[in-house]
Amino acid sequence: MAAFKDLLVVLDTSRSCATRLDVATALAVRFGAHLTGLYTSPPPQVPAMIESQLTPELVELQMRTLSEATARVQELFKRRGEGPGFTSEWRAREGEAGEIATLHARYADVTIVGQVDPESDELGATSDLPERVVLGAGRPVLVVPYAGTFKTVGQRVLVAWNAGREATRAVNDALPLLEGASKVTVLVVNPRPGLHGHGEIPGSDIALHLARHGVPAEASALKSDDVEIGALLLSQAADLDADLIVMGAYGHSRLRELVLGGASREILRSMTVPVLMSH
């Protein structure tokens, strides 16, 4: 059985960080993995209009604020990110969070990040961090919603299948989780017939491939012309009581999805369960 042995969790000062860390810790215990907690401290910000008025006292205050934030996150990792059954490591870096997280993600089997909370006042928040890591790391990324708690991840899985490269990679990347699932539903939305589509029975080919890995997979297909695919996936996840969605990310160009919308953006904006994405 394949396994995740090197996990990275991206930490921050948000309210949802503890929940994300709990998800990462549970995965580390499950696979007997090494868990690295990465916190990026933003560099001191000095607006140009007050740069000339900057005093040593203001500089010291800002540096102390950043240092205290780092210490709080490190203490959280020490309390909730360490334990028996796995090893752990703390890393603190200074710089731009998206760039640093993407670099470190390239040396992990899977990276756990948080969904962006539009109402967050998080220190040094990066508004598109999940997208940047997914698109830049070349590794699978598990995105954890900012709302809710998640006692299980990967027991009841919904696989979004479109027979494309990104979806193929996501299924392969998720195998360590899928092999331990109790139920896996492979969902094809608006299936296309024919050799270059989804086959005679949509989703059956990939379900059979998963079955050969011991994955309890079943294929399902839905036709929907008036519901966005992202919204449909979330609705199906709720109906199936899924605790994980597996999907390829940005099958179209990111610019096209920004202009026209797309499943990846809708999921990242409205997700209700953790989502494992690959690009």
In short:
By secondary structure, the chain is an alpha/beta fold. The chain is built from ten helices and ten strands.
Task: Fill in the keyword field for this structure.
Rossmann fold, 10 strands, alpha/beta, 279 residues, ten-stranded mixed beta sheet, single chain, 2 domains
Produce the secondary structure layout.
Blueprint: E1 6-11, H1 17-31, E2 34-41, H2 56-80, E3 87-94, H3 97-105, E4 110-114, H4 129-137, E5 141-144, E6 156-160, H5 165-173, H6 175-178, E7 183-189, H7 204-211, E8 217-222, H8 229-239, E9 244-248, H9 254-260, H10 263-270, E10 275-278
Parallel strand pairs: 1-2, 1-4, 2-3, 4-5, 6-7, 6-9, 7-8, 9-10
Antiparallel strand pairs: 5-10
Helix pairs in contact: 3-4, 8-10
